[in-house]
Amino acid sequence: xxxxxxxxxxxxxxxxxxxxxxxxxxxxxxxxxxxxxxxxxxxxxxxxxxxxxxxxxxxxxxxxxxxxxxxxxxxxxxxxxxxxxxxxxxxxxxxxxxxxxxxxxxxxxxxxxxxxxxxxxxxxxxxxxxxxxxxxxxxxxxxxxxxxxxxxxxxxxxxxxxxxxxxxxxxxxxxxxxxxxxxxxxxxxxxxxxxxxxxxxxxxxxxxxxxxxxxxxxxxxxxxxxxxxxxxxxxxxxxxxxxxxxxxxxxxxxxxxxxxxxxxxxxxxxxx
Length: 272
What we know:
Elements: H1 17-29, E1 37-38, E2 43-49, E3 59-68, E4 72-75, H2 85-94, H3 99-105, E5 111-120, E6 136-140, H4 142-153, E7 168-175, E8 183-191, H5 204-209, H6 215-227
Parallel strand pairs: 1-6
Antiparallel strand pairs: 2-5, 2-7, 3-4, 3-5, 5-6, 7-8
Helix pairs in contact: 2-3
C-alpha cells in the first residue's frame, strides 16, 4: 500500500473559507504592502528595536517626497547626501523668480521621517513574531522618534531598549487615519529577554538603501509628477530647459559627455 506523503498545511486544516480569508486579510494588512519598510497603520504596532551597531544612532533620518495620488512617496538618495532629481527640481523651483514655479515647489517640499528597525510582532502582546522573524525597518514620524529617544535616555525608568537581556519592546500607537486627525506615540513595554535567534545588530542602512530607486527611475517618477495638474499653468514646455545631467547613484558618477562640476558640493539636509 502506497502512502500519500503529501503534507497538508496545519494552519489551514479545520478552518472555514471565511476564517482563512480573515487570516489572510490580517496578514496582508500587517505587511506594509510587501515592501522592505513597515508603515504603522491605525492601531498598535509592537516591535523590539535592534541596534545598528556600537556607537550607532538607533534610527536613520530620511528625506522623503510625497507625490500624492498613485505615485505615493519616495525616499530620496539625498538621505545619504547623494544626487536626487527631486531635490534638484525642488531647489530649482524654490529659487525661481517665477511665481508659478514657487507655487509648484510647495507641492514638492521634502519631508523628514525616521526609520527604526528590529523584530515586528503580529500581536500587541508580543507572543508571536511577524515576517518570519526577519529584521524590518519601520517608518515613523518625528514625534515617535522623539518618544523613543526620551525612553532611551531615561535610565531610571526605561533605558536601553536594545539590550537583549534587559531591554524591552516598544509599542508604536497610531490614532486616526486622516491627514489632520492622525497622532502617533511610542510607549515602553515591560523588560523581556530577547530570544537568542533574534539577537544581534541590524543592517538598518542596508534596509533603507534597498528602498531607494535609481536616479533614472526617480527621473521618470518626477516627470509623471510634473505632468500632473497641480493647480498651475501648463506652460512648462514653453520655458527653456537646462540639459539634465545623467547621474548614477553615486555623487561623482557622471556620463562621459558631461563635464562634472565638482566645485559645488550640495548639502541637501541643510536646505530643508
